[in-house]
């Protein structure tokens, strides 16, 4: 059975049949505060997280009550990921913590958990499709990448020092430059790598700290509010806004192969900005969640009272087939305006030719192409 689940601000979770658009069920008081994210673990079990600081597990076959509630965060829980290799549930919240939960051993009272990572200003956390990397975005404009990910090992890093560490700007060939004139635009990202090779620590989970290049924001800070990964693991997609909230951008960064296993003399960034587009910046202050299509050829982005379908070229080609030599604009394929309020979230169906969007007033819209 295919189910569309909707997280609501008013403590509820809604379930729809995506084919008929019929409402199936409402989970009243699923949480005690806003529901922020929903993640399916398999074809029946799913998890929800909330501003009430908890995570709840649900079974589609028995929706009258939760399977269990998980307690461990000290602030709003905003993100849920799932490692299919280890069956570890991974959550992040505004307390700065990334926590892993062993769903192999859950009971009615919860399941074993431990703090995997902590950093200040945490906004979003994502795992790559093969679970080999973890990406974390922050409200201070940093993007953190954990390479060769091992979720069974906690990574202890002094987050305040790390996010204040001075980095050297990269030149266009990935090398470092000692100085740069004030009027020269950046050709890459600022980067530093912290590798936990101290005695007793795993050689895995090497940490890279980036300040991604943002068009139009070369001299000002920015906040990375939304973070998504290409379904084939080729790139990361972010939505960011300026610190003054007067500009908003969607950017695509290609993963560059060969992240070094130890700090090189001239470090090379793992990400390269390939495509971007400026957004309407309607509904300032609200987070807008964008997404890739299942094949990775399209991006759906909230745009004022509707959505925009964006592509890497006019033919909706694969990213790998149309990587530009220089950074280029995303192509707008179509805009759809069907809401009476600011659109905050979008999602492609993983199995059907279908797209959903949700707006601030609570309306959900479903789109299907006409052939």
UniProtKB/TrEMBL annotation:
<keyword id="KW-0677">Repeat</keyword>
<comment type="function">
    <text>May function as a substrate receptor for CUL4-DDB1 E3 ubiquitin-protein ligase complex.</text>
</comment>
<dbReference type="Pfam" id="PF00400">
    <property type="entry name" value="WD40"/>
</dbReference>
<dbReference type="InterPro" id="IPR015943">
    <property type="entry name" value="WD40/YVTN_repeat-like_dom_sf"/>
</dbReference>
<dbReference type="InterPro" id="IPR039085">
    <property type="entry name" value="DCA10"/>
</dbReference>
<protein>
    <recommendedName>
        <fullName>DDB1- and CUL4-associated factor 10</fullName>
    </recommendedName>
</protein>
<dbReference type="InterPro" id="IPR036322">
    <property type="entry name" value="WD40_repeat_dom_sf"/>
</dbReference>
<feature type="compositionally biased region" description="Polar residues">
    <location>
        <begin position="169"/>
        <end position="191"/>
    </location>
</feature>
<feature type="repeat" description="WD">
    <location>
        <begin position="70"/>
        <end position="102"/>
    </location>
</feature>
<dbReference type="InterPro" id="IPR001680">
    <property type="entry name" value="WD40_rpt"/>
</dbReference>
<feature type="repeat" description="WD">
    <location>
        <begin position="28"/>
        <end position="61"/>
    </location>
</feature>
<comment type="similarity">
    <text>Belongs to the WD repeat DCAF10 family.</text>
</comment>
<keyword id="KW-0853">WD repeat</keyword>
<dbReference type="GO" id="GO:0080008">
    <property type="term" value="C:Cul4-RING E3 ubiquitin ligase complex"/>
</dbReference>
<feature type="region of interest" description="Disordered">
    <location>
        <begin position="168"/>
        <end position="214"/>
    </location>
</feature>
């Amino acid at each position: 059975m295919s189910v569309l689940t909707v997280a609501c601000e008013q403590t509820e979770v809604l379930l729809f049949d995506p084919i008929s658009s019929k409402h199936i069920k409402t989970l009243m008081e699923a949480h005690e505060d806003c529901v922020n994210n929903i993640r399916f673990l398999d074809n029946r079990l799913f998890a929800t997280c909330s501003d009430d600081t908890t995570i709840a597990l649900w079974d589609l076959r028995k929706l009258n009550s939760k399977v269990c509630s998980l307690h461990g965060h000290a602030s709003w829980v905003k993100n849920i990921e799932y490692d299919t290799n280890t069956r570890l549930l991974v959550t992040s919240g505004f307390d700065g913590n990334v926590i892993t939960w062993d769903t192999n051993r859950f009971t009615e009272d919860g399941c074993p958990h431990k703090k995997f990572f902590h950093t200040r200003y945490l906004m979003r956390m994502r795992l790559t499709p093969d679970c080999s990397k973890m990406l974390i975005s922050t409200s201070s404009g940093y993007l953190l990448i954990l390479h060769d990910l091992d979720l069974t090992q906690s990574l202890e890093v002094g987050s305040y020092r790390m996010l204040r560490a001075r980095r050297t700007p990269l030149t266009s060939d990935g090398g470092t430059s000692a100085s740069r004139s004030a009027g020269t635009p950046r050709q890459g990202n600022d980067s530093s790598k912290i590798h936990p090779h101290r005695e007793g620590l795993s050689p895995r989970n090497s940490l890279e700290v980036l300040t991604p290049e943002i068009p139009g924001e070369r001299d000002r800070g920015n906040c990375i509010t939304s973070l998504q990964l290409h379904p084939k693991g080729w790139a990361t997609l972010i939505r960011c806004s300026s610190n003054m909230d007067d500009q908003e951008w969607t950017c695509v960064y290609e993963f560059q192969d060969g992240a070094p296993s130890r700090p090189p003399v001239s470090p090379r960034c793992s990400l390269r900005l390939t495509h971007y587009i400026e957004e309407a910046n309607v509904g300032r202050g609200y987070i807008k969640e964008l997404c890739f299509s299942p094949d990775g050829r399209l991006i759906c982005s909230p745009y004022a009272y509707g959505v925009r379908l964006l592509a890497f070229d006019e033919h909706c080609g694969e990213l790998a087939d149309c990587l530009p030599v220089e950074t280029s604009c995303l192509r707008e394929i179509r805009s759809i305006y069907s809401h009476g309020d600011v659109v905050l979230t979008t999602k492609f169906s993983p199995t059907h030719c279908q797209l959903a969007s949700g707006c601030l007033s609570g309306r959900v819209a479903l789109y299907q192409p006409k052939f």
